[in-house]
C-alpha cells in the first residue's frame, strides 16, 4: 500500500539533478524548498532555492519600443538560498571533502506523509563508517517553518559529530542565459541581502522584506550561534543513533510576525511538527485520493500530481498558485488563468477551503484589475494575464494582456465554487463584485455589430491558443464572456443591481457572437481561422517543436495552427450546449491542427475523447497528462512542475472517465472507463457532503458518505448516475 504513495529515484528514467529537485520539491503553499540530496550523487548542476509565495522582486520592464498601457514592471519570484545546506564534520573530517565514499540507499518522496526521505552509508577518508537518515518537510502546522531531521549512527567509531550551516555562501542568483520565454530572467532576482546575528534579511524593490533564520537542535544541547553561521556538536558512541534537527524560519519582518516567529522558535518541537504533518496529509488523502486499480504506473502518476497540487496552493487568501507552484523559477512565479481553469476544480470538489482562499486572492487584487481596465480605457475590471501582485506583468501583450478571457475564467471559478459548495455567502460578500466588474468590462470592451442582425462581438483578442493572436471573436473567449454575463445577470437579480444594467448584460449574452461555419459544420476558433493556410506539418521536423522556439510569431500567427485546446475547451466546459456529433466533428478537425506545445492541452483532448466514445484516445492523452512530469514529457520539468496539467489530469479522470457534468441543480456521471483501468474510485465534496464514486467495467455507483436531505442519488442506467440537488428552500 505504502509503495503506491512513495516515489523513489529508481522509478525515474531522468535523473538530472535539477529535474529531481523539481520532482522532490517540498512546499506548504507558503514556503517552497527545492534542494539537492544531502550528499548528492546525481549528474548535472544543482539549482536549489527556497521560495516564499508572493515574495517577489520588481523593476521596470525595458522595451525597445514603448506603447501606451504596456505593463510597466516585471515581477519575479525571489529565489532565497537553500536553507538546508549543511556541513557535517565527523571527528574532524568534513563532508565537503570529495573523498568520502557515499552510497545513497534511499531517496524517496513519501507522498502519503508529505516528507522527503534520504538514507546513506558513508565511509570517511580515514575509514570511519556511519549511516545517515534524513527526513525533511515543509510544515503544514507552522507555515513559516521547514524542517530537516538527521539521524546519524556511527558504526565503527565514537567521537564528536559537528553539524554546521551558514547563510553567507548560499546567497547566489542562478545564471540563466536561456532564450526560452518560459524560463525566468536571471538577474534582479536577488533582493538586497543583509546578514546579522544569524538573521538573513532580504529587501526587495517591491518594498517587501523577508527574514530568514535557522535553528539547530539536538535534545538538550545548545547550538553555537555565530553572526553568519550556526553549529552544533554532539558526542556520539559507536552503534548508537543521534538525532539532530535543522529548522529554517522565514517570516515577514512586521513586529507582530517577528514576535510570532520568536515564539515559534522558542517552542520548536520536531515531534509535534512531524506528527502534525502526518495528520494533515492523512486528512488530505482521505478527502482527495483517487484509486486507480489495474495500473500501478498511472496510480503513482495521479497521486504525484495530486500531491503537488495540494502542497503548492496558496492558502492565505493573499497568494495564489503559480504555474510552477513553488517548485522552480519557470514563468517567474506568476499566476495565470491556469489556476481557475485547470487547478481550481480539483480544490473546489475536494478541498473547498483552499478553493475559497485561491478565489479570495482574486478579490484581493480587484482594485488593481479595476485600475487596469481604466488604463485600457474600459469600464469594470480587467485582471492581469500574469501577475503576483495584481498588476499586469506580461511584457508581450499579443500573448498576454490580449488574453482577456482570463476575466471570464475567473468568473467561471467563482461560479463553479458556488454551484459545488453551495457557499453563496462568500459570493454575496466577495465574489459578486468580481462578477459584476468583469461583466462591466465585457460590455465596455465588446461592440454591438452595425449589421442588421443584433450581434455582440469581442474583437482584437487572443484566445487560449497562443499560436493565433489578436483576432476577432475568439470562440472560447466569447463563450466564456457569455457565461460570465449570464452569471452576472443571475447575481444582479439576486443582489439588486439596477434593472437596466442587468438587461444590458442579458442582451449582450443573448446575442454573443459564437463563430460557426455552416458549410463545414464546425465551430470556428475565431472569425478568420479557416481563412489561414494550414501549418506545413509534414515538412516540420520533430526538433522544431515547440514551434515558439523556432519560428517568428508572425510566421506562426498567419497559419492555421493551435498551440493548445481552444474552442474545444469551451465544448469541454459546457457539454450541455453541444451535440455529440458536433463535438466529434470539431475534435477531428482541431486535433489535426493542434501541436500540444502547451502542457494545458492534452487533458482537454482526453476528456472530450472519453466523452465521445473514443476511449483509447482518451486513455492515451490521459497517460501523457498523468505522467507528464514523471517522464519529463515537455522537456522542461527542471524549471518546475506543470501544475495546470496536474489539475488537468484530475479533470481527465473526473470529467472524462467518470463523465462528470454539472447541469442546473444536477450532476451527471457516465462511465467512460478505458479497458486499461479496471476500477476507479474517488470522492467529491458536494454541498458540504462527501460523495463516493466508484466505476468499473459495466457499472458506476454513487453513494453519499454523510447524510444530506438535499442530495438525491439517482441510478439512471448501469453506466449512468446522477445527483439531484434540491433547492435549499424546498
Ligand atoms: C500557455 C498558457 C499558460 C502558460 C502558463 C503557456 O505555455 O500557452 O495557456 O497560461 O503557459 O502555464
TrEMBL record:
Active-site annotation: 466
Top-level taxon in the UniProt lineage: Bacteria
The entry's keywords: Glycosyltransferase, Hydrolase, Transferase
Residues bound to substrate: 337-338, 563-564
Residues annotated as domain Glycoside hydrolase family 65 N-terminal: 11-248
Molecular function GO terms recorded: carbohydrate binding; glycosyltransferase activity; hydrolase activity, hydrolyzing O-glycosyl compounds
Occurrences of domain Glycoside hydrolase family 65 C-terminal (ranges): 664-711
GO BP, one annotated term: carbohydrate metabolic process
All residue ranges annotated as the Glycoside hydrolase family 65 central catalytic domain in the record: 303-650
Membrane-spanning intervals of the chain: none
Entries under InterPro entries matching the protein: 6-hairpin_glycosidase_sf (IPR008928), 6hp_glycosidase-like_sf (IPR012341), Gal_mutarotase_sf_dom (IPR011013), GH65_N (IPR037018), Glyco_hydro_65_C (IPR005194), Glyco_hydro_65_M (IPR005195), Glyco_hydro_65_N (IPR005196), Malt_Pase/Glycosyl_Hdrlase (IPR017045)
Family designation: Belongs to the glycosyl hydrolase 65 family.
Alphabetical list of PANTHER family matching this protein: GLYCOSYL HYDROLASE-RELATED, PROTEIN-GLUCOSYLGALACTOSYLHYDROXYLYSINE GLUCOSIDASE
Protein name: Glycoside hydrolase family 65 protein
Biological classification of the source: Bacteria, Bacillati, Bacillota, Bacilli, Lactobacillales
Amino acid at each position: 500500500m505504502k509503495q503506491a504513495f512513495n516515489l523513489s529515484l529508481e522509478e525515474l528514467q531522468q535523473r538530472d539533478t535539477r529535474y529531481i529537485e523539481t520532482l522532490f520539491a517540498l512546499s506548504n503553499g507558503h514556503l517552497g524548498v527545492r534542494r539537492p540530496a544531502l550528499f548528492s550523487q546525481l549528474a548535472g548542476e544543482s539549482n536549489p532555492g527556497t521560495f516564499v509565495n508572493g515574495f517577489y522582486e520588481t523593476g521596470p520592464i525595458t522595451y525597445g519600443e514603448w506603447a501606451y498601457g504596456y505593463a510597466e514592471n516585471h515581477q519575479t519570484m525571489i529565489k532565497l538560498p537553500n536553507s538546508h545546506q549543511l556541513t557535517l564534520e565527523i571527528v574532524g573530517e568534513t563532508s565537503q571533502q570529495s573523498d568520502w565514499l557515499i552510497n545513497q540507499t534511499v531517496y524517496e518522496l513519501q507522498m502519503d506523509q508529505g516528507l522527503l526521505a534520504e538514507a546513506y552509508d558513508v565511509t570517511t577518508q580515514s575509514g570511519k563508517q556511519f549511516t545517515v537518515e534524513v527526513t525533511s518537510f515543509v510544515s503544514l502546522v507552522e507555515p513559516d517553518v521547514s524542517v530537516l531531521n538527521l539521524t546519524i549512527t556511527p558504526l565503527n567509531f565514537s567521537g564528536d559529530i559537528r553539524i554546521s550551516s551558514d547563510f553567507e555562501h548560499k546567497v547566489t542568483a542562478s545564471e540563466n542565459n536561456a532564450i526560452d520565454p518560459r524560463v525566468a530572467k536571471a538577474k534582479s532576482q536577488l533582493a538586497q541581502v543583509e546578514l546579522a546575528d544569524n538573521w538573513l534579511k532580504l529587501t526587495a524593490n517591491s518594498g517587501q522584506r523577508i527574514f530568514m533564520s535557522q535553528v539547530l537542535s539536538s535534545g538538550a544541547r545548545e547550538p553555537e550561534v555565530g553572526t553568519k553561521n550556526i553549529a552544533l556538536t554532539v558526542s556520539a558512541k559507536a552503534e548508537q543513533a543521534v538525532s539532530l534537527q535543522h529548522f529554517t524560519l522565514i517570516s515577514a519582518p512586521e513586529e507582530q510576525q517577528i514576535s510570532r516567529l520568536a515564539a515559534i522558535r522558542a517552542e520548536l518541537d520536531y515531534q509535534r511538527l512531524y506528527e502534525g504533518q502526518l495528520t494533515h496529509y492523512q486528512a488530505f488523502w482521505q478527502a482527495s485520493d483517487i484509486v486507480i486499480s489495474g495500473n500501478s504506473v498511472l496510480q503513482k502518476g495521479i497521486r504525484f500530481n495530486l500531491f503537488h497540487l495540494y502542497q503548492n496552493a496558496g492558502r492565505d487568501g493573499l497568494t495564489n498558485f503559480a504555474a510552477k507552484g513553488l517548485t522552480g523559477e519557470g514563468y517567474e512565479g506568476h499566476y495565470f488563468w491556469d489556476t481557475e481553469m485547470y487547478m481550481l476544480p480539483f480544490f473546489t470538489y475536494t478541498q473547498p477551503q483552499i478553493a475559497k482562499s485561491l478565489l479570495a486572492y482574486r478579490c484581493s487584487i480587484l482594485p488593481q484589475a479595476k485600475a487596469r481596465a481604466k488604463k485600457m480605457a474600459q469600464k469594470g475590471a480587467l485582471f492581469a494575464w500574469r501577475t503576483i501582485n495584481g498588476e499586469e506583468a506580461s511584457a508581450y501583450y499579443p500573448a498576454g494582456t490580449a488574453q482577456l478571457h482570463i476575466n471570464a475564467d475567473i468568473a467561471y471559478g467563482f461560479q463553479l465554487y458556488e454551484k459545488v459548495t453551495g457557499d453563496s455567502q462568500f459570493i454575496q460578500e466577495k465574489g459578486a463584485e468580481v462578477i459584476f466588474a468583469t461583466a462591466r468590462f465585457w460590455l465596455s470592451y465588446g461592440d454591438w455589430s452595425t449589421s442588421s442582425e443584433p450581434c455582440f462581438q469581442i474583437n482584437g483578442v487572443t484566445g487560449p491558443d497562443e499560436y493565433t493572436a489578436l483576432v476577432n471573436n475568439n470562440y472560447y473567449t466569447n463563450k466564456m464572456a457569455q457565461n460570465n454575463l449570464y452569471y452576472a445577470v443571475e447575481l444582479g437579480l439576486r443582489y439588486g443591481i439596477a434593472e437596466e444594467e442587468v438587461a444590458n448584460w442579458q442582451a449582450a449574452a443573448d446575442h454573443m457572437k459564437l463563430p460557426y461555419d455552416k458549410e463545414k459544420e464546425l465551430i470556428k476558433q475565431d472569425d478568420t481561422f479557416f481563412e489561414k493556410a494550414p501549418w506545413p506539418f509534414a515538412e516540420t521536423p520533430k526538433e522544431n517543436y515547440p514551434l515558439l522556439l523556432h519560428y517568428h510569431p508572425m510566421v506562426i500567427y498567419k497559419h492555421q495552427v493551435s498551440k493548445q485546446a481552444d474552442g474545444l475547451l469551451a465544448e469541454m466546459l459546457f457539454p450541455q450546449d453541444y451535440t455529440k456529433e458536433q463535438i466529434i466533428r470539431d475534435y477531428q478537425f482541431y486535433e489535426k491542427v493542434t501541436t500540444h506545445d502547451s502542457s494545458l492541452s492534452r487533458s482537454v483532448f482526453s476528456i472530450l475523447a472519453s466523452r465521445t466514445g473514443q476511449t483509447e484516445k482518451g486513455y492515451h492523452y490521459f497517460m501523457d497528462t498523468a505522467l507528464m512530469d514523471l517522464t519529463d514529457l515537455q522537456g522542461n520539468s527542471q524549471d518546475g512542475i506543470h501544475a495546470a496539467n496536474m489539475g488537468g489530469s484530475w479533470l481527465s479522470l473526473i470529467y472524462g472517465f467518470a463523465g462528470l457534468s454539472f447541469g442546473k441543480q444536477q450532476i451527471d456521471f457516465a462511465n467512460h472507463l478505458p479497458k486499461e483501468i479496471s476500477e476507479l474510485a474517488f470522492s467529491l465534496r458536494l454541498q458540504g457532503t462527501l460523495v463516493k464514486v466508484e466505476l468499473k467495467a459495466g457499472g458506476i455507483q454513487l453513494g453519499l458518505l454523510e447524510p444530506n436531505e438535499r442530495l438525491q442519488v439517482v441510478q439512471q442506467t448501469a453506466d449512468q448516475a446522477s445527483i439531484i440537488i434540491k433547492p435549499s428552500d424546498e
